[in-house]
Please model this.
Amino acid sequence: MAEVRLRALEKRFGTLKALDGVTLTIGEGELFALLGSSGSGKTTALRCVAGLEHPDSGDVLIGGRSVLGRQPYERPIGMVFQSYALFPHLSVFDNVAYGLRARAYAEGGPVGKARVLGAFVSRRLFPPTPELRRKVGDALALVNLASEAERMPGQLSGGMQQRVALARAIVTEPAVLLLDEPLSNLDRKLRVGMRATIRKLQQQLRMTALYVTHDQEEALSLADRMAIMDQGRVVQLGTPAEIYDRPASAFVADFVGAENLLPGEVVARDLSCVTVRCGALDVRATTRAGGAPGADAPGSKVRVVVRPQSIQLAPRGATLDADNRCDGLVRFGSYLGTTARYEVAVGDALFVVDVPDPRPGALLAAGDPVSLGFAARSVILVPA
Model:
């Protein structure tokens, strides 16, 4: 494992500024996620680490040494691509062995190069060395594919193909593992399983990893730390809990899943709480240490964030033990198994509410009058 540093990276594609002074440090053995929408610069940053793009300015250091000017195969990295990038004409074994053979080719003389090329033509005439067999076997065992070594990629499911790609990335024992949207082509069930596989493997091998994704659930569940990117810049950096609980802006709050994001203005403040006027609704919020600067001063324009799971829902007129209470009408409801999700209109505002453990067949109907309640400590304020 090795520390990775990105120093003031700048990169343009024509008039588009893909990276705008990106500076990050990824610690040894850390799984670090870059989260952002398409075009935010996250994949460009990863490709600069991989050597697939060259920054216009700035530097990339791995293990304290600059890797600019070194080819991808000369860098101590392994990479997993979004599209798997497996060779369809090679077996699982030969796909995983590719990185080892490419390294042997780069480092070998004429005879060594001929043996590597021959191995791609005929494994019978140029059999794998015992060391290569051992390393490929160990990598396949780590991803639970030891019994699939002689199968072809086209005979495997999408999840199995991605595990082959993962084995190929780790077989060379890289200091840094790079993963570019590795799960985006899988269905939800496979994504959840592969998330666990990647995290366990990264921890087992004590490998530094840079993980690029547009999926906030992936980033929150996998990363030790993460950075949110927008328009080529890092707009917030921290642990998943820090970013989820204390978003620095309305953009970050929305991107990590704030379904309730209400515009308002701070109209009062006391020692422990502020009052925010959101149209006809006044919302009490606990002042937070480390919150977004300037978000709780009287007169400030803010966005009020309340997570759907933080809101109580009850029939109209029921007693709710909550700092904030209001009445509304159900607009829409959907049964999601472990939760029921409702859209509730409160004046001009629309709240999304998650109710845990709903009773089958007891879903509220559109137009049902309800009361909502939520604690002041569950309210997050971010600058407008």
